[in-house]
Amino acid sequence: MIGYERLAQRALTGEAPGRDEAAALLDDPEVGLLRLVDAAFAPRLKHFGRKVMVHVLNNVQNGLCPEDCGYCAQNRDSKSAIRQYPMKTPESILEEAEQAAKAGASRYCMVLSGRGPTLAYTRRLAEVISEVKRRFPVEVCLSAGLVDREKAEILAQAGLDRLNHNLNTSERHYAEVCSTHTYADRVATLEAARASGLDTCSGLIMGMGEETEDLVEVAFRLRELEVPSIPVNFLIPIDGNQVAEDGSLTPERCLRGLCMMRLVNPSAEIRIAGGREGNLRTLQPLALYPANSLFIEGYLTTRGDTADETYSMIRDAGFEIDGNELYDATRKDGLDARHEAASDAVRDASHDAPADASSQSRFRIPGGGDQLLKPEIARPER
Ligand code: SF4
Q1: Dihedral sign for Cα atoms in the order 246, 184, 115, 273
Q2: In the structure, what pLDDT confidence band is assigned to residue 303 with cuts at 50, 70 and 90?
Q3: Residue with CA closest to ligand 1 atom 4
């Protein structure tokens, strides 16, 4: 029998539940969902109050990837109809960073497809990052694949705040989702980032055919690596990809996964990441109790809820948006101006076309009808 108060008290002192307990939070029908959500809310409230951090993703390079991550629309074997393009121009990235700041994003996340940048490419990225930091009041995150110590230091010196590289699943399960690089490669990237003084961001994808033990394992691995920012993605299935929908992702399991992640990593920024709309569905507001951040306006190759839908959900649930100064400055003009800016930002950053607009489902893709739902496209983060 789970002691909810004890679970919350331990999290408040930074202590994790036992691994068996963590597994029970996901699987045991005796663990009451609302009592679990309440227990997970205690450390969330202690570390983040009722604030919700808002992130905007910019896919600054799409497709053209030699890797075979089986969940990703950009992988070398994927048949999904994404638009492929090399790195956007610095001007275009700066413009999109400005729009993200105007939209109230506290963080601007630049994401590049590919195994990892060369040294020369890293230097180009560093120049852009430094200019974004000089011009706009946003924290800058980068997701660029495998990065070694030398490259991480170049990025840190440019002012990068965080480097993202998701572990995605457990070490045991990793070979089933990718064969072109190893789990150890991913861990090494996080270690290089930390050693260079960068904050790390690393999370997982639920629903890739993993066992409960794999979810518990990755949650504890992230704790051991002291990762301060953990995106929890929910698989968006892509027709023809190696990783298929495994049928495990009910809204309740997604919510339990977020609670488990919060209780194992009590002080981390837990992000409701890709696939929240189609997988959590009507339970999305409850997810704000264990989690304290989310993306607005979609992901890398998938459209999500609009900024106004997301802001309304946050306010209706009694939470506040933790935006930047520009966001506060626009607040006097009401939500509309902010929403307009957010919509513009994302419209400009969306380059993917729907492969087939004929079948509708619970997932949104860009292009065509604005509210079209379809399950083609990809994972938000690498
Ligand atoms: S997750 Fe990243 S490295 Fe893997 S296939 Fe997609 S773009 Fe390439």
Answers
A1: positive
A2: low
A3: 69
Distance between CA 232 and CA 379 in Å, rounded?
A: 11
**Cβ neighbours for 34, distance < 8 A, ≥ 6 positions apart:** none
Domains with residue ranges and CATH for the chain = 4-349 (3.20.20.70)
pLDDT tens-digit readout, 221-262: 999 999 999 999 999 888 878 888 888 999 999 999 999 999
pLDDT bucket at 330, cuts 50 / 70 / 90: very low
Backbone angles phi, psi at 256, to 5 degrees: -60, -40
Task: Provide the mean pLDDT of the chain.
Answer: 83
pLDDT digits (tens, 9 = 90+) for 83-93: 777 778 889 89
Single pTM value for the model: 0.84
- Check residue 62 and report its DSSP letter: B
Alpha helices (H) in 89-182, listed in sequence order: 90-102, 119-135, 149-157, 171-174
Distance from the CA of 294 to the center of ligand 1, in angstroms?
A: 21
CA 271 to chain centroid, in Å, comes to 6
Between the CA of 263 and the centroid of ligand 1 the distance, in Å, is 29
DSSP 296-357: SS--SSSB---HHHHHHHHHHTT-EEE--HHHHHHHTT-HHHHHHHHHHHHHHH-----S--
- The set of protein residues with a Cβ atom below 6 angstroms from ligand 1 is 65, 67, 69, 72, 74-75, 113-115, 145, 382
